[in-house]
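Hello forum,

I keep getting stuck at the same step: I have a sequence, I want structure tokens, and every attempt I make locally crashes halfway through. Rather than fight my setup again tonight, could one of you with a working pipeline run this one for me? It's a single chain of 85 residues.
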Amino acid sequence: MGFDFILDELHQTVDDIPDGASFFAKDLLKGAEWKELPVGGRIRFGKYFKRKVENGEFPGVLYQGRDNNNSASYKKEKVRGADEK
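Reply #2:
Ran it on my machine without issues. Output:
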């Protein structure tokens, strides 16, 4: 099962996260969507999102490492425009 079909939705959800905020991949899905995924699906989604972040597909999102609950933690930084230094 791939997650590319929700890529546009993920971009919109990430855009809505305030600059400077930390979040988990599960925060990008609605509660019901996350709960409906089997454990293996949750793991695949987490790996999918991390790979997209590492490939630069979510500018301004940084992987911070594992949190206490072993979930991957991310932080959204402000993306500087071409006119900013």
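The chain has one domain: 4-76. If your local run keeps crashing, start a new thread with the error log.
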